[in-house]
């Protein structure tokens, strides 16, 4: 019997520029996306009818019915399976947990049954195409235009979520401007990690201000991250509330995560590598 496992890595928007809005209300994005070496885990086994079990430390509140993106992905690819989802990522957190689960399910079911992943996965969510691509990418359009990026260095990061779930549509609705500048085209090259960090600091997450207006604790998360030794940049990912801090070494990232976990027992804190090979 073929059992296939797949990692559903956390998605991090290192930049997230909102550059316009379509007539249907969806926003045009311009985002540099990378993935963490930390995430959920999907295991699929052949079965005559699809069944989903959700376990893991972050399983509470995750839908187990047809609303789960794992089941939507299984229906889209048309493969039945016994699917186990182990949740380690907080939901509704701006790190694409559900989208990454959907992409991992498509990959795992494709391998298990020997069927191709459907070309059009955007119907599962705007973040699913980039999660399916899986590596550092330039994401544009509403999320369907994904260009893999070489030359993005691996980074040491700490991810922090203060435990507030954020509804993505509400954050987009809070934008005061929707025609903000895009990243430069072509993107610059970054010979050293320090060049990349310096450039990142000049970019933005346009959803950060409306997210802070809705959930002021996000500003506290950013300030707390910036206050830890070695933190070079702190920014929110996606529509929040998860923020990332970038560090100059694995040791400093790990020390910061240890200190934050101790000082803020209610916060979800993880030291991880982004865009590691
Ligand atoms: C904002 C981003 C940035 O990567 O990340 P998250 O905060 O979800 O992690 C994504 O675009 C989210 O992707 P995803 O969560 O898959 O979005 P969807 O389910 O397709 O859409 C949820 C809602 O977000 C808004 N939305 C989403 C994408 C987009 N380009 N414009 C939008 O306005 C719409 O209100 C939509 O109804
Ligand atoms: N597999 C899943 N994991 C987490 N949330 C899911 C999943 N499937 C559906 N959802 C729903 O999707 C919503 C958005 O969750 P998620 O994809 O984790 O957040 P975000 O879009 O902020 O990155 C959640 O509120 C939850 O109800």
Question: What's the SSE blueprint?
Answer:
Layout: E1 4-21, E2 27-46, E3 51-55, H1 69-77, E4 81-86, H2 97-113, H3 128-133, E5 137-141, E6 145-148, E7 155-161, H4 168-173, H5 193-200, H6 208-214, H7 217-226, E8 231-236, E9 243-247, H8 250-263, E10 268-274
The protein binds 4-diphosphocytidyl-2-C-methyl-D-erythritol 2-phosphate (SUD) and adenosine-5'-diphosphate.
Adenosine-5'-diphosphate (ADP) binds next to helix 1 and helix 2.
What does this structure look like?
One of its GO terms (biological process) is isopentenyl diphosphate biosynthetic process, methylerythritol 4-phosphate pathway. Keywords: ATP-binding, Isoprene biosynthesis, Kinase, Nucleotide-binding, Transferase. Residues 202-260 form the GHMP kinase C-terminal domain. Its EC number is 2.7.1.148. GO terms for molecular function: 4-(cytidine 5'-diphospho)-2-C-methyl-D-erythritol kinase activity; ATP binding. The protein has eight helices and ten strands. The mean pLDDT is 97. The chain has helices spanning 69-77, 97-113, 128-133, 168-173, 193-200, 208-214, 217-226, 250-263; strands spanning 4-21, 27-46, 51-55, 81-86, 137-141, 145-148, 155-161, 231-236, 243-247, 268-274. α1 runs parallel beside α2 (97-113). The longest helix has 17 residues, at 97-113. The chain folds into two domains: 4-145, Ribosomal Protein S5, domain 2 (2-Layer Sandwich), CATH 3.30.230.10; 151-274, GHMP kinase, C-terminal domain (Alpha-Beta Plaits). The strands form two sheets. Strands 1, 2, 3, 4, 5 and 6 form a six-stranded mixed β-sheet that branches. β8 (231-236) and β9 (243-247) form a beta hairpin. Helix content is 28%, strand content 30%. The chain is of the alpha+beta class and 277 residues long. Bound molecules: 4-diphosphocytidyl-2-C-methyl-D-erythritol 2-phosphate and adenosine-5'-diphosphate. 4-diphosphocytidyl-2-C-methyl-D-erythritol 2-phosphate binds at residues 13, 16, 26-27, 29, 31, 94, 96, 99, 125-127, 142-143, 168-169, 172, 238-239.
